[in-house]
């Protein structure tokens, strides 16, 4: 997540650290995830685990253990077939040639992508608004949401189960115990809690149980925050040190939460994540909310992608964060088409602060500072910037640890450039050097995006333009001064929503014909429950303890969509994961509250589908979308065939099912996706591309839809037929869209196709 409160930078390691065995020193073992063909089980084995163990025993090398059971850390049975084991590189090569082994990949480390949102999304009741629509709808299913994260702080009021009915009889989960977590911490809200650490310990050694909870208890705070965002019950008076005071409530407050702790101090490991998804599906979850990611790779090499495919086959909706790699193009993660990939946007709430310079100029910023140290707004204080080049900041300009000269900054406000280390850590560096306050300036990569932080000293964040103006003042004034003030919470911010600069964006380099991200949701300055073990910044020096914290990141936007998906599932219990995603995408909007096109915070210009996908979610409209684009496992498998996966790679997804390639597919663009992305080659052999789509009527049985086309520069667009006449509910009708090039364009062009019956507007972005 994009939060200043951790030192975890958004990156992915290609493989895990070497495992130090307790049985032998310096063993050359790493963890590998092995994909196996379940149907190849020899007749002389009664179960797959025995077969896997025997296969391992036949290839392990002396002087290490010959017993394959000792090497296996997980066996996967539900969403994925195979196992995870500790192997040397040479052993992995030998195993690749064994009967029934499809592929072997090294362990991958994933990282976390680190309230007003219910009102902003129209989920509150009253005044005839969208919330009244939801309040009048009767749920048909008791929905269970699985959250893969850092665990949970069960004492939070957000997880109170008062008034809830007994757990659903279909639930097959468990409440695992350990230090700080017992069976009593599960209840009718937290229906299950499990931990997955074998892969983590294989890479890093045994967990230090004195410093880390080897139990579902959350000491980081991230997991508690995401779980409360997705399904927390209403809690009045929730706030962070007085900021954002109000009722904190999750998107689906009536839903159950099942906790799967897969992330530890040093990251989240793919073998653990695979096992958690495998177990969650077997337990009976309806939705999986996963606010973490790794680097982008081919679908068959991405453990999360493979596991999510299996979950989708079982009818589970999988929502993942898009990543915090923005504003660079092609920075997305979790891009598989069967995953809902969620970007982040702002809400109409902010936490303004003021910088007043000695020359009288005033600049606006944001901050969540509330502490004993106070700067008088009627007094000016010396201010200093330790950088010497605006375009190439030095360590002291970035306020990196140990970079500031105490003699130069003591008693002064220090201007620090954003980047390299966490934002709140910069304030702590200033504080330790004797500074009395901080102005945190955005650089070009952050633009005008402002993310509020709960600093340890008086501090405010300003945009790049303001930061550069303050730097010019510091260079030209012989005795520069400034002061800071903090204005609390402000509602009704315009424009909003705005796409966050940190939110990862397209194009989707794995499959350009599949538009990603799918949509954006609130992910900036989100208030939700917090761990009692961590301060709001998670810095070791932060001894404050709060019940609620404000964080930003696609980690925060993901559970918003997971919760709305759970609401849709509770009402439309027979809808497939693809139908739910379609409803969210085709009803999303791409304008802000000033009725202008939604903006990108990085450039302060209109955002495009590469930044916002189909647009910003609109829960009330998603409840009744009119039409949906449905997709089944066979369709997704045909997409994999169209991108030329080998038979062995395809069997990773087919497992033992009857999935097979339909050779009528010519392109990944044939997938019945709610968005349309057409990629013409730079020197086209053809100037015409036709794609087909099929819509299912989920609205009135008798309905007539007409097409509206927003033109795209450089191509002509023809839709046949231009009218769809439905006579039954759930009837399917198809149409074709033909794109003919008029003139090749130097950059991607965007448009919209909308089917409308006068009530519903079924909107598909076109790239």
UniProtKB/TrEMBL annotation:
Pfam family, one: PA
Compartments it resides in: Secreted
Principal location: secreted
GO molecular function: serine-type endopeptidase activity
TM helices/strands, residue ranges: none
Keywords annotated in UniProt: Glycoprotein, Hydrolase, Protease, Secreted, Serine protease, Signal
Ranges of residues in domain PA: 380-470
Residues in Inhibitor I9 domain copies: 31-113
One Gene Ontology cellular component annotation held by this UniProt entry: extracellular region
Residues of the active site: 149 (charge relay system), 222 (charge relay system), 555 (charge relay system)
CDD domains hit by this protein: PA_subtilisin_like, Peptidases_S8_3
Domain Subtilisin-like protease fibronectin type-III as annotated: residue spans: 670-767
Family: Belongs to the peptidase S8 family.
Protein name (database record): Subtilisin-like protease
Source species of the chain: Nymphaea colorata (pocket water lily)
């Amino acid at each position: 997540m994009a939060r200043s409160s951790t030192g975890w930078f958004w990156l992915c390691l290609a493989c895990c650290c070497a495992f130090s065995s307790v049985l032998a020193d310096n063993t050359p073992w790493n963890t590998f995830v092995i994909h196996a063909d379940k149907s190849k089980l020899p007749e002389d084995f009664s179960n797959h685990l025995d077969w896997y163990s025997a296969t391992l025993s036949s290839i392990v090398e002396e002087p290490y253990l010959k017993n394959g059971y000792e090497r296996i850390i997980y066996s996967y049975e539900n969403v994925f077939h195979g196992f995870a084991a500790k192997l040397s590189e040479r052993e992995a090569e030998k195993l690749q040639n064994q009967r029934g082994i499809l592929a072997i990949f090294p362990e991958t480390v994933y990282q976390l992508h680190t309230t007003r949102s219910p009102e902003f999304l129209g989920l509150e009741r009253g005044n005839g608004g969208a919330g009244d629509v939801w309040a009048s709808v009767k749920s048909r299913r008791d929905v269970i949401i699985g959250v893969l994260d850092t665990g949970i702080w069960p004492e939070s009021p957000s997880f109170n189960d008062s008034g809830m009915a007994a757990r659903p009889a279909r639930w097959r989960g468990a409440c695992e115990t350990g230090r700080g977590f017992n069976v009593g911490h599960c209840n009718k809200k937290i229906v299950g809690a499990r931990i997955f650490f074998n892969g983590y310990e294989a890479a890093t050694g045994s967990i230090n149980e004195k410093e880390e909870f080897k139990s579902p208890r959350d000491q980081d705070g991230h997991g508690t925050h995401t779980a409360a965002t997705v399904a927390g019950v209403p809690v009045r008076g929730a706030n962070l040190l007085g900021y954002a005071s109000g009722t904190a409530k999750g998107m689906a407050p009536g839903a159950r939460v099942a906790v799967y702790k897969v992330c530890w101090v040093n990251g989240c490991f793919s073998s653990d994540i695979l096992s958690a998804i495998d177990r969650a599906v077997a337990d009976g979850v309806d939705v999986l909310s996963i606010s973490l990611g790794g680097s982008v790779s081919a679908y068959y090499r991405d453990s999360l992608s493979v596991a999510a495919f299996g979950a989708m086959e079982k009818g589970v909706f999988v929502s993942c964060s898009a990543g915090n790699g923005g504003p660079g193009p092609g920075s997305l993660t979790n891009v598989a088409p069967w995953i809902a990939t969620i970007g982040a946007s702002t809400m109409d709430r902010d936490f303004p602060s003021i910088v007043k310079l000695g020359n009288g100029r005033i600049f606006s910023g944001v901050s969540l500072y509330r502490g004993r140290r106070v700067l008088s707004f009627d007094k000016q204080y010396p201010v200093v910037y330790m950088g010497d080049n605006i375009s190439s900041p030095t360590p002291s300009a970035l306020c990196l640890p140990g970079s500031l000269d105490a003699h130069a900054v003591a008693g002064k406000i220090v201007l620090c450039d954003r980047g390299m280390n966490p934002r709140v850590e910069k304030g702590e560096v200033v504080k330790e050097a004797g500074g009395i306050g901080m102005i945190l300036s955005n650089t070009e990569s952050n633009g005008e995006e402002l993310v509020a932080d709960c600093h340890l000293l008086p501090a405010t964040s300003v945009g790049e333009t303001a930061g550069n103006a303050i730097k010019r003042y510091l260079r030209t004034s012989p005795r520069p001064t400034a002061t800071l003030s903090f204005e609390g919470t402000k509602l009704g911010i315009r424009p909003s929503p705005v796409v966050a600069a940190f939110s990862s964006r397209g194009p989707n380099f794995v499959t350009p014909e599949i538009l990603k991200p799918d949509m954006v949701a609130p992910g900036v300055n989100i208030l939700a429950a917090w761990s009692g073990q961590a301060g709001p910044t998670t810095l070791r020096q932060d001894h404050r303890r709060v019940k609620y914290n404000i964080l930003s990141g696609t980690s925060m936007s993901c559970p918003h969509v997971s919760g709305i998906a759970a609401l849709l599932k509770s009402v439309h219990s027979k809808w497939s994961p693809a139908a739910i995603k379609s409803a969210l995408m085709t009803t999303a909007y791409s304008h802000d509250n000033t009725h202008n096109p939604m903006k990108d915070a990085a450039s302060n210009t209109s955002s495009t589908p590469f930044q916002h996908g189909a647009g910003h979610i609109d829960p009330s409209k998603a409840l009744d979308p009119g039409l949906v684009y449905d997709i089944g496992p066979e369709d997704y498998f045909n997409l994999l065939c169209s991108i030329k996966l080998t038979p062995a790679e395809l069997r990773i997804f087919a497992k033992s099912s009857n999935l097979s390639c339909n050779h009528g597919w010519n392109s990944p663009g044939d997938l019945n996706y709610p968005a349309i992305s057409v990629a013409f080659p730079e020197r086209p052999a053809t100037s015409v591309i036709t794609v087909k789509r099929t819509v299912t009527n989920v609205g009135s049985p008798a309905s007539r839809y007409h097409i509206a086309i927003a033109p795209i520069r450089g191509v002509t667009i023809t839709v046949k037929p231009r009218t769809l006449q439905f006579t039954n509910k759930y009837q399917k009708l198809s149409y074709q869209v033909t794109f003919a090039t008029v003139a090749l364009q130097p950059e991607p062009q965007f448009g919209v196709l909308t089917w409308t019956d006068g009530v519903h507007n079924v909107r598909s972005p076109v790239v």
